[in-house]
Write a structure and sequence with these properties.
Distance between the termini: 51 Å
Helix content: 25-40%
Shape: elongated
Radius of gyration: 27 Å
Strand order of the largest sheet: 1-11-12-13-16-10-9-4
Strand content: 15-25%
Largest sheet: 8 strands, mixed
Number of strands: 18
Length: 423
Amino acid sequence: MIDIRQIREEPDLVKSALALRGEETSIETILELDKKKRLLLHESEEMRAQRNSVSRNMSNPEQRTPEIMKEMRELGERIKTQEDELHVIDNEIQTQLSHLPNLPDPSVPFGEDERANKVVRIEGDTPSFDFETEAHWDLGTRLDIIDFERGARMAGSRFYVLKKKAAKLQRALIQWMLDLHTEEHQYTEIYPPYMITEEGMRASGQLPKFQDNLYRDIEEDLWMIPTAEVPLTNMHRDEIFDIEEMPISYTAYTACFRREKMSAGRDVRGIKRGHQFDKVELYRFVKPEDSLMELKKLLSHAEEIPKRLGLAYRVVELCTGDLGAAAAKSFDIEVWAPGCKEWLEVSSCSTCSDFQARRANIRYRPVDSDGQTNRPEFVHTLNGSGVALPRIMIAIMETYQQENGSINIPEVLRPYTGFSNID
């Protein structure tokens, strides 16, 4: 959530920053409501001061005249009316603020949509083959390790069944990634709930903007998480960290659930865009001054996955028009899938500045140069996939396919799978 003080004090800057994102939502309504709120607060304070002054004099029984008592009752009613009006206005301000996306960091390149994203670098060589390659949907069907027909029969379109060695390969990938991030990158592993309250969804920035893309249990009023970023944001909601605790780094494996309405019209063949998928998430709570430095570090941690798997990948810096709603700056990691012949996003690493922390009320106690603790400030939150399945599965299947129709398993995964190929 954007700080209301910044909107009040720097309206032109906020308007310009939102325009860079292609955001057409006006802040004029927020400014008008904020002005009205502050006026009502001033009037309420004056009325309370008047009531307190009269109350002090009423200790003398001679002052308790019917006229004074009537005036006090009327004053109390006006204060109550204004408090109710202030509550309504404050709720409307919060609603208006909740619809605004984060402001992009000044270093983010300008662009209207994903076509303006910048390829920062390409790592690894895209593989070449002496035979005609297959896409993963053909490989999986022929090897009987992916069952699209039965998945659709069970749950409808965009569901599938992983079988045999493919199921174990996915499980091995999850375990290997968790081990890498906890043992080498020093993340603390978390196993969070897969459902969360509406308040938790709002705190992480998923609501109200992405309501149509989320699954919900109406009876219990719980929401299926679209990413582990949601529960990890809420791990420390309404808490204050000591500066010695930071940065705090979490990794979590979860299933993720998305209705994928926003992907209408896109190529959805195979397993690359389903309503349910697995993901290992990386999440960090950091000091504001370390935000961009820590983003580079988080990105390097996510990059280790395709790098150690021997996959060709590229790092893409997102432009202003392609940033996620909560993000201030983002880099995507895309792996090359030689069967599909396309780059597939497997991770999006972002700093959300204090946008989520302000919603979730997550702060820390900064310390000045004299060692004195200052008033609490909002932390910055960072998140990234470390990494998402099943697109990394696609890249492995298609990159390591052999002329005889089998699929080799990357060396680093063999201790986890217990086999070296799928045939």
